[in-house]
Write a structure and sequence with these properties.
The structure is a single chain. By secondary structure, the protein is mainly beta. It has a single domain (2-218), classed as Porin (Beta Barrel). The chain is built from one helix and nine strands; from the N terminus they run αβββββββββ. The longest helix has 16 residues, at 2-17.
Length: 221
């Protein structure tokens, strides 16, 4: 009888440990981290000036921000995320060096559907809508100071994301973005140089930097 009670208690303990972290009423609170680095060298041909010239472009971006979600049904959550990021890019043709620095912030809401295997590993996907804003500074090493530019921007985004999800422990989750189809509408204000709008549609698959999330699961336990 004692052995049966011990086995029953152990079974219930294991069931509690393996209980899904994606059930209705569960919540998660975490942080998103993103990093991108890229370097490209282009060979330009201009017979009137120089037969061949090389332009090197370097780009780095880092972003971080909190996220929160609530499961309105099993394997279906809604939530919001904030983000602040900085980026820098440098372009040189061997003579002039241009440097661009950007600071941006964003807020987004999302809905995600989970597809899990044994409640430990799987995928989630869904739409996301957000607002973005930021500042941009562009300077040149060999051109007059008047050519340098300072601008501000704001706009909105609509995206559909696919993430890989893994729960290494009962209350800890990890995710990484695999694919992102995103539309951006941005309005730029270049002050005395005027303003304009841009519209972009991008499909990123795995290779657009590293975007991770670490989160803590709590609530319906």
């Amino acid at each position: 009888m004692r052995k049966l009670m011990i086995l029953t208690a152990a079974f219930l303990f294991v069931m509690q440990i393996s209980k899904a972290q994606t059930e209705k009423g569960d919540q998660s609170l975490g942080i998103n981290l993103g990093y991108t680095a890229q370097q490209v060298t282009n060979a330009n041909t201009n017979p009137l000036v120089n037969p061949i010239s090389n332009t090197t472009y370097q780009y780095k971006n880092f972003s971080a921000g909190p996220n929160y979600s609530y499961f309105i049904a099993d394997k279906l959550d809604i939530g919001a995320a904030l983000s602040y990021g900085t980026s820098s890019s440098t372009s040189t043709d061997g003579v002039d060096v241009s440097k661009q620095t950007t600071k941006d912030y964003s807020a987004a809401i999302f809905v995600r559907k989970y597809f899990m295997y044994h409640d430990k590993i799987g995928f989630r996907m869904g739409p996301q809508f957000g607002y973005t804003g930021g500042t941009n500074k562009l300077t040149y090493s060999q051109q007059p100071a008047a050519d340098n530019q300072n601008s501000t921007s704001n706009g909105y985004t609509a995206a559909f994301k696919l993430d890989f999800v893994y729960y290494p422990a009962k209350n800890i989750g990890l995710s990484a973005t695999i694919a992102n189809l995103e539309y951006d509408h941005t309005k730029d204000n270049n002050h005395n140089m005027g303003s304009g709008t841009t519209d972009n549609l991008n499909l990123d698959f795995i290779n657009n930097g590293l975007n991770l999330s670490v989160f803590y699961v709590f609530g319906n336990k």
